[in-house]
Design goal:
Blueprint lengths: L1 H15 L4 H35 L4 E8 L10 H10 L7 E8 L11 H11 L5 E5 H8 L13 H7 L3 E4 L11 E6 L4 H4 L9 E5 L6 H12 L4
Parallel strand pairs: 1-2, 1-3
Antiparallel strand pairs: 3-6, 4-5, 5-6
């Protein structure tokens, strides 16, 4: 340790003895440039990793939008916490998002509504996994093609469990047929209404985003609010 301190002292004396600041900086660069570059690269890497960990958005385990409700059921609510406990999802790796700040009723017309436009953007990006609404509104929304046809193979598990609850609407693309397609699941008697106070006499339903990548999480949500596995 003493040898190191002695050597460092000698180097400091050499730097101090340079005739000008420019000369001192030139000496430091000539003899220590590799150390300087290495330390700078290390600091940049550490800073990037820290920023990425703190601020870069994570993927989602599950993203659901609850339309037209003033109940406290958003991210951080009791409903959100109960669902997390039920699923065991680790928020250190992915997010669970409950959005309760969306207000549009498609049966009354939603074109030009900023909340509806945000809903469409989330669907088209594949971010939105599920949406709840009053039954009539959800059925009307299903005719836009932005809810998954629950007859599709990827929804087979949901159909097997909850097919008797399906709600139907006319197909978005009639070139492929005119038979009504299932776009929603009736939740009027679920915990959403009974325990968490969502919606009213009109009943409520859930639709799956047309491009959802998290159908297992949607199924878990249905299990959670309809009592499966509890």
């Amino acid at each position: 340790m003493n040898d190191f301190l002695e050597a460092a002292g000698k180097e400091w004396d050499k730097i101090r003895s340079r005739p000008s600041l420019k000369s001192a900086l030139s000496y430091i660069w000539d003899y220590y440039s590799l150390w300087i570059v290495g330390i700078a690269a290390g600091l940049i890497t550490i800073s990037y990793l820290a920023w990425h960990s703190l601020f870069m958005p994570k993927e989602n385990w599950f993203y659901i939008t609850f339309t037209n409700t003033f109940e406290e059921i958003g991210t951080g609510s009791r409903l959100w916490e109960d669902y997390l406990e039920f699923t065991g999802f680790d928020l250190k790796t992915k997010n669970v998002v409950f959005d309760n700040s969306s207000y549009f009723d498609y049966k009354k017309g939603a074109i030009g509504n900023s909340y509806y436009e945000a809903f469409v953007a989330h669907v088209e990006a594949g971010t939105l996994d599920a949406v709840t609404a009053e039954k009539d509104s959800l059925i009307a929304l299903g005719s836009t093609g932005r809810l998954l046809d629950l007859n599709r193979p990827e929804a087979a598990e949901i159909k097997a469990k909850y097919g008797e609850r399906f709600l139907y609407t006319e197909p978005y693309d009639k070139d492929y047929g005119v038979q009504e397609v299932p776009v929603g699941i009736d939740l009027s008697d679920s915990r959403l209404a009974r325990e968490y106070g969502l919606y009213g006499e009109g009943g409520c339903a859930l639709g799956v985003g047309a491009y959802s990548k998290n159908l297992e999480a949607v199924e878990l949500f249905l299990d959670f609010i309809l009592g499966e596995g509890q």
